Amino acid sequence: MNSLNLLRENNPLVICYTNDVVKNFTANGLLSIGASPAMSEAPEEAVDMLTYANALLINIGTLTKAREADILKIAKTANQIGTPVVFDPVAVGASQYRKDFCATFLKEIDVTVIKGNASEILALMDTDTKMKGTDSDQDLDAITIAKNAYNLFNTAIAITGEVDVVVQDNQIYKLSNGSPLLAKVTGAGCLLGAVIASFLNKDNKVTIEMLIEAISIYNIASEQAEQNSKNNGPGSFMVELLNALYHIKYDHYLKMSNRQEV
């Protein structure tokens, strides 16, 4: 069975330690595609939650000093239980504080997938990289950055942008689906991180096909949402994206996926 249909059959629990700006949108997006979200941030319940969860998303969008210890405790519990961890280092290049925390996180935590834009992934490797908030430099070579990050961190890498790049098992793919309106909705990238997490599970090693399917389905849904919103703007697009995630079928992925191995 393909990953999307398996997801909808099992309604996987996804624990999201994500930023304050996107929690509602992330939860609704996961519900729309067929997953079961839980915005759990208490280390005291991490064992109970993560025992039944398919994956944990860690998103540092609204990182604070008070949250650092909780994030590390929850992620370490996930490692102990064997729950996959998706790490989204939001705006890591915007401040030295974020760079330092991400360096600590990646040193102490076994991460299954690192997801971010090209500037964010570069900043994880190069402490001199600077960002303006969450914006990515469109002139960066995402393929080279993805290769280097994969070799450095020894884990799956998903770089998002106008063209997405995925690396796993020494295979690299460019994915060219998506809508420019995704960049006009706060939390669209954060939701993608959660969608990736919803496709993972404890029983199977993450494969490049699994990542390609998750990212492509999300981006194909965004194309359908753009069409259905009839040029009414980001507000209509945001609602239609939830609708498109709810209605998308695996056949849409097979027919519309735009992928290229590099």
From TrEMBL:
Origin: domain of life: Bacteria
Protein's GO biological process: thiamine biosynthetic process; thiamine diphosphate biosynthetic process
Protein's job: Catalyzes the phosphorylation of the hydroxyl group of 4-methyl-5-beta-hydroxyethylthiazole (THZ).
Catalysed transformations (reactions): 5-(2-hydroxyethyl)-4-methylthiazole + ATP = 4-methyl-5-(2-phosphooxyethyl)-thiazole + ADP + H(+)
Residue sites binding substrate per the record: M39, G187
Entries under Pfam families matching the protein: HK
Protein name in UniProt: Hydroxyethylthiazole kinase
Organism of origin: Staphylococcus shinii
Gene Ontology molecular function, alphabetical: ATP binding; hydroxyethylthiazole kinase activity; magnesium ion binding
Listed SUPFAM superfamilies: Ribokinase-like
Enzyme class per UniProt: transferase
